[in-house]
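User: Sorry, folds how?
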Amino acid sequence: MRESGGAIDCSLLPGDKSFSRLLPAFLFPYLAYVGLGSLPPHLISPEGAGLLRFAVVAALLAAFRGEYRFGARMTARQMAIAFAAAAAAFAIWVVSYRLSLALPWWHTHIAAAESSRPTTAYWILRSVNSVLLVPVFEELFCRAYLSELFIGASKGLGGFFPALGRRMDAYPEPLGAPPISTASVIGSTALFTLGHDVSAWIPAMLYFGFTTWVYARTRSFRLCMAVHALTNLAIAAVVWRQPAMQFLWF
């Protein structure tokens, strides 16, 4: 958030560029991470893919850093809220994911996950990516860019999709509150969910819905990134300590 004419501006996008010009800065790190994670193992080892992910995504975030806004610094109270929200988000993710995998069409997923034996190097690289990079580019793309894009389109005339097309040529405007509306929540949640494995769609939807509620209550984008990082750190620790929880990363 920033001051705008004496009022709090909750927009996280620079107002001097259109949504279409801002798109590469927010989309490319996201696509790079998803795409590099999809490389077949006969082309590159999981450890190599993890290292490549880190190098490419970190370079993209650094190259586009001038386009990013993260709002006000967190207060001590918000830090405490972040830890509590992360504990709840972790529980939501783990419980809903395990229940999802109990459905008949995922029975092979559990068996394959339990038989996998990730190396220490893979665990370290994936943990670093999950804690340091993922909370940044996913929150910037889904919660900042997409939410502001969709909330403007929801107010347009002639239907949502024609308005969305016109919205790409518009410039982000100051916001008096976080960009949360029915259209922005549905749109950003859907794209956040599609970035995950199909087996994780239910926990991804629940997680993003919960953290969107936290965002609406706290108005802190940095808190959302902290919750994301702490949740991923907890998952990494559980995967390392409990082999039966390998399904969380498979």
Q: What stands out?
A: Residues 120-153 form the longest helix (34 residues). Residues 2-248 form one domain.
